[in-house]
Amino acid sequence: MTREILNARRLLCPLPVIRTQNKIKEMRPGARLEVICTDPGVMQDIPAWCRIHGHTVLETRSGDHEYVIVIEVGGAV
Amino acid sequence: MNIQRKAVALISGGLDSMLAAKTVMDQGIHVEGINFFTGFCVEGHTHAIREKDRAKPKRNNSLWVAEQLGIKLHIVDVIEEYKNVLINPKHGYGAHLNPCLDCKIFMVNKARQWIAENGFDFIITGEVIGQRPMSQRKDTMPVVARESGADDLLLRPLCAKNLAPTLPEREGWVDREKLHDFSGRSRKPQMEMAARYGFREYSQPAGGCCFLTDKNYSAKLTDLWQAHGHKDYELDDVMLLKVGRHIRPAPHFKLIVAREEGEGRFLQGYRKEFVSMAATSHNGPLVLIDGTPSAEDLYLAAGITARYGQGRKAEQVDVKITDKDGAERTIQVKPFAKELPQEWYL
Ligand code: SF4
């Protein structure tokens, strides 16, 4: 299972979502993407974007002013 | 066999575009949303940074609207291309540095390219005749359609009945009778429509979505252009205008003073691009210095830095100056004692 990491630190809303969206376009269904951010807004926005586009958020965690979201790419991009 | 027609709706996050999309969705059209990020959109930015705003919900309104509507949303980064719109607006600026008419033309043009690439049939916007002074007047609305190249592929469902029928109407993809005839600044019809659809919560409509309509922000941007001697800018330049207190004691340098911890953390990320300073003998904010300050200017800046910290009343404060390459030195200064001249504040 491929797992990629996207560094979206220091980017502010909506750039982390844009980078996630563009990265996922290049990935295959079932692959996983770990997005690392510093903008707390991503905890709302990236899951919302995933719900709209049919991807699954497997995990969210935060600590030390960083926010990590692990996404499994869905079928319909 | 009926062909499933597809439209892309420009979703700003406000109520109008939400209702426009919904009106067309109700006619069986497949709708997806598109949202353009210019670098000036008012979303989570400032409250994502500021500690005091941590508790506020930080949702992105356009994503939220799309989710309410149950449609996909494509967020497109247009930061680079938008520079040309802002720097050189053919139709000029609005009340502040908002080039609304050129901005609308640009966005509809981008949507036109998008529908061509993605096999969609037409474009929807939430525009209403007479609602905005610049881009939504009876005489400027055709300008948007024409100069964007979208022509009659551009449908404005909220005021369509006041405009000539567009291709989707003429072809019978949408029923013109079920479109609306809103006009003017009153938002009552939109409110009523929202209530009918059960949209109880939506972001503040009109005007609040863009920093370029903000007087203070525009003043800071004008100052930046003057100081740089040109209007070109990087995303970081315009992002920093949203953060901290900006103080310009002289044309060739300014200070960006963090107002609180969250801003300080954010400004930390720019320490390789600016000379920075902070008091070390007392608690105080991180300060970035933009421009080309002389040694004497740095002394003055250190005095101001000290003034914003807990050592403001001390006889002497140690201020550490860090160069872009990380080289550090500490100087001792007397905090700037007087009120800063009003004209220094941007
Ligand atoms: S308010 Fe800002 S985003 Fe909206 S049309 Fe004007 S310039 Fe463009």
Notes on the structure:
Chain A has two helices and four strands; from the N terminus they run βαβαββ. With 77 residues, chain A is of the alpha+beta class. Chain A has a four-stranded mixed β-sheet with strand order 1-2-4-3, covered by helices on one side. The longest helix of chain A is centred in the middle third of the chain and has 12 residues, at 42-53. Chain B is built from twelve helices and eleven strands. The termini of chain B are far apart. Classes of the chains: A alpha+beta (77), B alpha/beta (346). Chain A binds chain B through residues 10, 12-15, 17-18, 21, 39-41, 44-45, 48-49, 51-53, 65, and chain B through 35, 37, 41, 43-45, 48-49, 54, 57-60, 62-64, 66-67, 71-77, 239, 265-266, 269. Bound molecules: iron/sulfur cluster. Iron/sulfur cluster binds at residues 98-100, 103-104, 135, 209-210, 212-213 of chain B. Iron/sulfur cluster (SF4) is lined by residues 98-100, 103-104, 135, 209-210, 212-213 of chain B.
Give a summary of the structure in a few sentences:
The complex is a heterodimer of chains A (about 80) and B (about 350). Chain A is an alpha+beta fold and about 80 residues long.
> Separation of termini of chain B?
62 Å
Largest interface, counted with CB-CB under 8 A? A-B, 19 and 29 residues
Residues in β-strands, percent of chain B? 15-25%
Strand tally of chain B is: 11
Strand content of chain A: 35-45%
Uncertain runs of chain A are none
| Ions, cofactors and other bound molecules | iron/sulfur cluster
Shape of chain A: globular
Physical arrangement of strands within the biggest beta sheet of chain B: 6-7-9-8-10-11
The profile of the biggest β sheet of chain B is: 6 strands, antiparallel
Protein traits:
heterodimer; A: 77 residues; alpha+beta; Translation Initiation Factor IF3; B: 346 residues; alpha/beta; 5-stranded parallel sheet; binds iron/sulfur cluster; TusA-like (chain A); Putative redox protein, regulator of disulfide bond formation (chain A)
